Amino acid sequence: MKLTEYQKSDLWHGTIFRFPAGYPFESSVDFMLMDYPHSESGFALYCVSGYHAGSLELVLPKEAANPVNCSISSQWMAENWSKWVYAECMAADVEIVEKTAY
């Protein structure tokens, strides 16, 4: 599902954002939303694919968070993707890969 078409209001840790990228990433890259308690939002994005897998890419700002249920606003993420996350990609090109239960 595309980020701009995502119907749920919240994004939870473990959510993966897959999007087209360029240098220094591969042509497609995955970022994972992860808990990051040392920030105002409580969340960060880590690269989880390719050469940069395991690298902290971005600590999300306080305004991204929904403090009531410890999540990130999907609307904020869609509206601020190019500004905060990756300027060379539009939010409409970002795919959401939700974690699944095992």
Helix and strand topology:
Blueprint: E1 10-11, E2 16-20, E3 28-35, E4 43-47, E5 56-59, E6 65-66, E7 71-73, H1 74-85, E8 95-97
Antiparallel strand pairs: 1-7, 2-3, 2-8, 3-4, 4-5, 6-7
Provide structural commentary:
- This protein has 1 helix and 8 strands; from the N terminus they run βββββββαβ.
- The protein is mainly β.
- The chain has one domain.
- The strands form 2 sheets. A 5-stranded antiparallel β-sheet has the order 5-4-3-2-8, with no helix packed on it. The chain has a 3-stranded antiparallel β-sheet with strand order 1-7-6.
- Strand 4 and strand 5 (56-59) form a beta hairpin.
The helix tally amounts to 1
What is the residue-mean pLDDT, rounded to a whole number?
Answer: 93
How far apart the termini lie comes to 20 Å
Q: Could you name the ranges where pLDDT drops below 50 across 5 or more consecutive residues?
A: none
- Strand tally is 8
> How are helices and strands ordered from N to C?
EEEEEEEHE
Structural class: mainly beta
> What is the quaternary state of this protein?
single chain
Tell the overall outline.
globular
How can the largest sheet be summarized?
A: 5 strands, antiparallel
Strand percentage lies at: 25-35%
Strand order of the largest sheet: 5-4-3-2-8
User: From the alpha-carbon coordinates, what is the Rg to the nearest angstrom?
Assistant: 13 Å
Q: How many discrete domains?
A: 1
Helix content: 10-25%
